[in-house]
Amino acid sequence: MTATDHSQQLIAAAAQAAADKLAHDIIAYDVSDVLSITDAFLLASAPNDRQVKSIVDEIEERLNKELGAKPVRREGDRDARWILLDYVDIVVHVQHSEERVFYALERLWKDCPELELPADAVATRGKAEEHARRQAAGEAALNAELGGELR
Questions:
Q1: What percent of the chain shows pLDDT beyond 90?
Q2: Could you tell me the pLDDT band of residue 3, with boundaries at 50, 70 and 90?
Q3: What is the spatial order of strands in the sheet that 24-30 belongs to?
Q4: CA distance 136 to 116
């Protein structure tokens, strides 16, 4: 069994919405052969809680506006570290980058086929790592500058 056309439409629209809000490392898996509760998972991440919430809000708005779809459940809003949108046919996971690394959902679903995503979503692959490198370099430069002032 494979993900339905409707599920693939939802995934594509959600992935594009996430990409438009600068999500990192967007990927989707067809989990229909291993799970009976949903067809597909979409994973995306962001470097801060505010952006996680912004991505989720955009996905929810876009799917409602374009496809008339509303989630049956939305979980994780309080901390905005990992927000889950359950559309029955698909489940969207938007995680803070730290949670994404820690829980490594990709490892759980790596044997499932990846679903095709819009080019903008595919272009986000590796962005979390790039962001972490830039942030570390910026912190090192700041520490060096502050260290020089303290002497």
A1: 77
A2: confident
A3: 24-30, 40-46, 90-96, 82-86, 73-75
A4: 32
